[in-house]
């Protein structure tokens, strides 16, 4: 189905043409029409399938069909998203769709001064994109009034549940009119997401185009068994061997990310970090440089695992497997987007094999193993034998040490008794003489 068949406003169709959009994705085909009719929607689709356009286009069309003056301190639509990066990205994307419409679009997020955002709110906003925490701050300072809100979108609803933001979301929505259209988009349909939908949506329609926790068919998965201490060395060899132009690398901790960055800088790679200890400005510059091709390797923790749209990204590397199997799906969703081919490479030590088993059960198939000569690892049996031997060796060593200590104590006691006996005999002999 093509966008031109929707009979959209000329300004919206012109923007879509300028963006190079012609054919709709499955989620767009199924969500745009009922959303345009005013239905509440619970939409489930895997990452990289065009969810932003699926909720933005019907809202833009409805705002166009029912024009109203922009009121100071008010907004007609709010889009809530879990992270600063996603808020900024959504604003950029939706501004492209609305580039020929007389609408104001603003993003709110932490890490920057409130004053600049306050000025924009005072002027009035048509579409407001925000993280829950920052929007609550502006509400508490009376910078924004939600009584005129007509449209609400919860993007990445499952992620907001995971991050504990739902209490903030509920507080925000209590200040919005009950008579509104609400669209809830989620990469997964868990029990918690369904419960949230029944609390927030009215006579909603469920739109689902993907299996829960499914991965895109356009992504090739590969596992390299490797010892933990040699992962950085393997990564450098693979980049040089296959001449990877751009690589997004996920580590499980900030410390691992920092260590890997130091290693890559020694090898003269252009590399940047994106994790929670970096300032908002530093993270924004790192993402911008990576998207523009100035940076070859971007190292990230889970903060970048959701929603980031990096066009043409071919390679995602799991330097460490995520703690939760579900996070594997979200990490690799950065590649293979919008029908393009991508590759997800995971470095797996023997200690991570149980986590890999969980991931394979979740996605429903066994990932292909590749072995690079020189990086072979020991057998699983030898690992388990070593692990089994450690407690026994420790116990044996402890018992030996205890026995030695007892022998020493016994010998010392014997020497003391012998010395006492000798002294007594000497005194007795002296008395007789």
TrEMBL record:
Composition bias, kind Basic residues: at what positions? Answer: 424-433
Does the keyword section mention Ion transport?
no
One Pfam family matching this protein = Helicase_C
| Domain of life according to the entry | Bacteria
Name the SUPFAM superfamilies on file.
P-loop containing nucleoside triphosphate hydrolases
GO MF annotation: an example: nucleic acid binding
Domain named Helicase ATP-binding is located at: 32-207
Question: Could you tell me which PROSITE patterns the record lists for this protein?
Answer: DEAD_ATP_HELICASE, HELICASE_ATP_BIND_1, HELICASE_CTER, Q_MOTIF
**What is one term from the GO cellular component aspect held by the record?**
cytosol
Taking every annotated instance into account, which residue ranges of this chain make up the domain Helicase C-terminal? 237-383
Keywords, A to Z, come to:
ATP-binding, Helicase, Hydrolase, Nucleotide-binding
Where is the DEAD-box RNA helicase Q domain positioned along the sequence? 1-29
> Which residue numbers does the motif Q motif cover?
1-29
Q: Where is this region: Disordered?
A: 392-433
Q: Which family does it belong to?
A: Belongs to the DEAD box helicase family.
**PANTHER family in alphabetical order:** ATP-DEPENDENT RNA HELICASE RHLE, ATP-DEPENDENT RNA HELICASE RHLE-RELATED
State what protein this is by name.
DEAD/DEAH box helicase
Question: Which organism does this record belong to?
Answer: Alkalimarinus sediminis
């Amino acid at each position: 189905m093509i966008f031109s068949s929707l009979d959209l406003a000329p300004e919206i169709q012109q923007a879509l043409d300028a963006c190079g959009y012609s054919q709709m994705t499955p989620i767009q085909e199924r969500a745009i029409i009922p959303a345009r009719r005013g239905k509440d929607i619970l939409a489930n689709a895997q990452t990289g399938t065009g969810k932003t356009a699926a909720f933005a286009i019907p809202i833009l069309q409805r705002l166009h069909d029912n024009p109203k003056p922009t009121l100071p301190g008010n907004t007609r639509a709010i889009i809530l998203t879990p992270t600063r990066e996603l808020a900024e990205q959504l604003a950029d994307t939706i501004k492209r769709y609305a580039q020929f419409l007389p609408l104001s679009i603003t993003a709110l997020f932490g890490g920057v001064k409130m004053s600049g955002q306050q000025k924009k709110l005072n002027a009035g906003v048509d579409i407001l994109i925000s993280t829950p925490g920052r929007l609550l701050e502006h509400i508490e300072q009376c910078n924004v009034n939600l009584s005129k809100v007509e449209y609400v979108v919860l993007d990445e609803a499952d992620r907001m549940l995971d991050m504990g933001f739902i209490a903030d979301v509920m507080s925000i929505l209590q200040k919005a009119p009950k008579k509104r259209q609400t669209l809830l988009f989620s990469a997964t349909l868990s029990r918690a997401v369904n419960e949230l939908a029944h609390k927030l949506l009215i006579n909603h329609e469920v739109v689902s185009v993907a299996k829960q926790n499914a991965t895109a068919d356009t992504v090739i998965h590969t596992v390299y068994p490797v010892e933990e201490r040699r992962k950085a060395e393997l990564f450098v060899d693979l980049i040089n061997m296959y001449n990877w132009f751009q690589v997004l690398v996920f580590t499980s901790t900030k410390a691992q990310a920092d260590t890997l960055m130091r290693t890559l800088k020694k090898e003269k790679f252009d590399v940047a970090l994106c994790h929670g200890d970096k300032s908002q400005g530093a993270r924004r510059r790192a993402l911008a440089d990576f998207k523009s091709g100035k940076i070859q390797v971007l190292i990230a923790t889970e903060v970048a695992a959701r929603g980031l749209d990096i066009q043409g990204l071919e390679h995602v590397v799991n330097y460490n497997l995520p703690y939760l199997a579900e996070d594997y799906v979200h990490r690799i969703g950065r590649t293979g987007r919008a029908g393009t081919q991508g590759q997800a490479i995971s470095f797996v030590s023997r200690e991570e094999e149980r986590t890999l088993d969980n991931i394979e059960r979740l996605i429903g198939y066994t990932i292909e193993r590749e072995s690079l000569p020189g990086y072979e690892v020991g057998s699983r049996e030898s690992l388990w034998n070593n692990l089994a031997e450690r407690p026994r060796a420790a116990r044996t060593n402890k018992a030996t040490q205890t026995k030695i200590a007892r022998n020493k104590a016994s010998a010392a006691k014997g020497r003391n008794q012998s010395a006492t006996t000798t002294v007594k005999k000497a005194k007795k002999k002296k008395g007789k003489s």
